[in-house]
Design a protein that fits this description.
four-stranded mixed sheet; alpha/beta; Uracil-DNA Glycosylase, subunit E; two-stranded antiparallel ribbon; globular; 276 residues
Length: 276
């Protein structure tokens, strides 16, 4: 099928914005057979498997794969908990994450995306996971979603010098897929410790995933948004105001009016606590 060049370029641009970074067909293809057919050569026969006697099998050492002691998901989570708890500063926490090789997301991502903004800010915004632009720059919310967030902040008299931004996941999932429960469990101790070290006056989860993670609820973001909740931060109750993720607003611009109400509510809360 021939596609006009302008449409093909527009499609590629859209793929890039959506985080597509590899092309996968609907059915597997034997590339060796394709090359052999193109060169008119017979496929290379596979080498016969040498016979192994029972005595040889008993005397040979076990393969490395079977000899390796497996590490359970719970052990990985415990390791993350211990590393995060040992950190007394944000820089130590960042270094601990940079050395945390157990999380598989680190192997496919380009950058650790730790945060952006001012850690001494009164409000901490928490998103889900880095996207393509965040992975490239190593900062939170720098793509289209981040640009919209900046405009929303500006509308209530705030900017990144006054707020702090992080994510519940620190590395970009391949193709911007949803993080798995195991990945969430591995990153959970670190975001919990990051909140404790920042000690914000208000937390704003951006979207369903961080809202569920912080509030331990299965309620959807449409019902959660705009309603004040609390987060237990080492015994201190911190006000939490869930709202929509900017990426959702880019897909559903009609919901911006609800997000605007949430941000006005945030502004009022900040003013009230300042006056108090």
């Amino acid at each position: 099928m021939n596609i006009p060049r302008s449409e093909a370029l527009a499609l590629l641009k859209w793929y890039g914005e959506m985080g597509v970074d590899e092309a996968i067909g609907e059915a597997p293809v034997d590339r060796y057979a394709v090359v052999a057919e193109a060169q008119k050569l017979p496929p290379k026969p596979s080498a016969p498997t040498p016979a192994v006697t029972p005595r040889q099998r008993m005397n040979e050492p076990p393969p490395a794969a079977t000899a390796r002691v497996s590490v359970s998901h719970s052990q990985l989570a415990e390791s993350a908990e211990a590393r995060a708890a040992a950190c007394t500063t944000l820089e130590e926490l960042r270094s601990a994450l940079e050395a945390f090789d157990e999380c598989g997301l680190k192997q496919t991502a380009k950058s650790l995306v730790f945060s952006d903004g001012n850690p001494d800010g009164r409000v901490m915004f928490i998103g889900e996971a880095p996207g393509r632009d965040e992975d490239l720059q190593g900062k939170s919310f720098v793509g289209r979603s981040g640009q919209l967030l900046d405009k929303m902040l500006q509308a209530i008299g705030l900017d990144r010098s006054q707020i702090y931004i992080a994510n519940v996941i620190y590395w970009r999932p391949p193709g911007n897929r949803d993080p798995s429960p195991v990945e969430m469990a591995q990153c959970r101790p670190f975001i919990k410790r990051q909140i404790e070290l920042c000690a914000p006056d208000i937390i704003v989860p951006l979207g369903a995933v961080p809202a569920r993670e912080l509030l331990h609820t299965t309620t959807g973001i449409l019902r959660l948004r705009g309603h004040w909740k609390t987060y237990d931060m080492a015994g201190r109750k911190v006000p939490v105001l869930p709202t929509f993720h900017p990426a959702y607003l880019l897909r559903q611009p009609a919901q911006k009016k609800l997000a605007w109400r949430d941000f006005l509510e945030l502004r009022c809360k900040l003013d009230e606590t300042t006056e108090g």
